[in-house]
Task: inverse folding
């Protein structure tokens, strides 16, 4: 059999590189999963075999992130974007339980620190009429380049139904170096699509954490949601619904998905299976703490090179630079095309910046090895020598 060693180094932002061990295991399992004589994509989602697979994946994620007992781990569909809506529905319903009575119009607080949180805030505004922007960095600074200090935040305090932020802005390369401090009675909601499992953090600070799988977890098609028990509310129908509280569609209801152990309908079985393999792989690497050290080393090497260079420029202020996605420009910009072509010739692919910002972007998720980063660094040094 020919080797499955990939022929390229994939620096894509997502769908992104998957650890080679995981791909090889999936290849082995593809035709005959656990002696069922069938592929994992063919077994019944109600079978004991799938139940075991799902529960093992959940348990391993729980171990990796030290998820407390009062949280549920859900595997949902619809990607990160579906969660932009799901959080609004679920958390307004949860807030309603705390604030009964006639008047109900709590603000939803959004930090806008990049393109994805901007998009999430836009969806909230589309669904609901009281969205409060805590900060909008593009408006205040002209571009998404930092996170302003606490004194500039306009939080709504205990009135808010939730406070939302995106921990790592995949397109702009801005990452929170801290967890924002908010009123302890208000659930903190976090989009960790592009940095979950890349560093240690305290789950108990959050009401809801979600992450699309296609970066640090596995393949597109499943979204991991970690939600605190007190935020699970039974969805009502329009006949018994409170005025001002939108009805939660069943497939978006955290309570329904949790009560059915993520198998309310046919779940995305293959993506869940791959996620499980990635969790096992990460545990074998020594878990989140061990990978965090490597991630820090990788991104430090990249940013050190950029800062020393005369032709590479990072647009992001140092404390807020993402350890996962490093967007940068080459001066003059005409060199960017040549840079990408040269990288591709050496087997380093998907380095093009997002179409909305241009330039180059190095995505260095957990599956990107230090060797791959060293190869890229050598190329960047040689490229600069040629053009300096
Ligand atoms: N949030 C972040 C931080 C993302 O990077 C992305 C996608 N790259 C999304 C949300 C949207 O995810 P999806 O495409 O799975 O809907």
Result:
């Amino acid at each position: 059999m020919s080797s499955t060693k990939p022929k390229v180094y994939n620096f894509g932002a997502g769908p992104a590189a998957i650890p080679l061990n995981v791909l090889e295991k999936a290849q082995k399992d593809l035709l005959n999963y656990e002696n069922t004589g069938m592929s994992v994509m063919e077994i019944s989602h109600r079978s004991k075999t799938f139940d075991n697979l799902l529960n093992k994946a959940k348990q391993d994620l729980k171990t990796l992130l030290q998820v407390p007992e009062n949280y549920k781990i859900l595997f949902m569909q619809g990607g990160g974007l579906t969660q932009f809506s799901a959080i609004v529905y679920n958390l307004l319903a949860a807030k309603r339980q705390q604030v009964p009575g006639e008047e109900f119009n709590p603000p939803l607080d959004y930090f806008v620190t990049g393109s994805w949180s901007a998009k999430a805030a836009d969806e909230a505004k589309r669904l609901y009429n009281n969205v409060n922007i805590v900060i909008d960095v593009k408006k205040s600074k002209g571009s998404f380049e930092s996170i302003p200090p606490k004194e500039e935040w306009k939080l709504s305090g205990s009135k808010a139904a939730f406070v939302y932020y995106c921990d790592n802005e995949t397109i702009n390369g801005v990452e929170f170096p801290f967890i924002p401090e908010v009123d302890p009675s208000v659930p903190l909601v976090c989009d960790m699509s592009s940095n979950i499992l890349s560093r240690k953090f305290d789950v108990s600070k959050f009401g809801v954490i979600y992450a699309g799988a296609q970066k640090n977890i596995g393949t597109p098609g499943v979204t991991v949601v970690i939600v605190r028990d007190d935020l699970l509310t039974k969805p009502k129908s329009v006949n018994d619904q409170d005025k001002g509280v939108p009805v939660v569609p069943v497939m978006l209801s955290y309570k329904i998905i949790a009560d059915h152990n993520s198998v309310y309908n046919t779940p995305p079985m293959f993506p869940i299976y791959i996620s499980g393999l990635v969790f096992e792989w990460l545990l074998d690497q020594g878990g989140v703490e061990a990978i965090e050290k490597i991630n820090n080393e990788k991104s430090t090497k990249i940013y050190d090179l950029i800062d020393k260079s005369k032709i590479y420029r990072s647009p992001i202020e140092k404390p807020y630079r993402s350890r996962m996605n490093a967007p940068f420009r080459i001066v003059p910009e005409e060199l960017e095309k040549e840079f990408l072509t040269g990288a591709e010739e050496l087997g380093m692919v998907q380095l093009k910046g997002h179409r909305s910002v241009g330039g180059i972007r190095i995505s260095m998720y957990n599956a990107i090895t230090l060797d791959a980063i060293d190869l890229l660094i050598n190329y960047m040094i040689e490229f600069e020598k040629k053009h300096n």
In short: The mean pLDDT is 95.
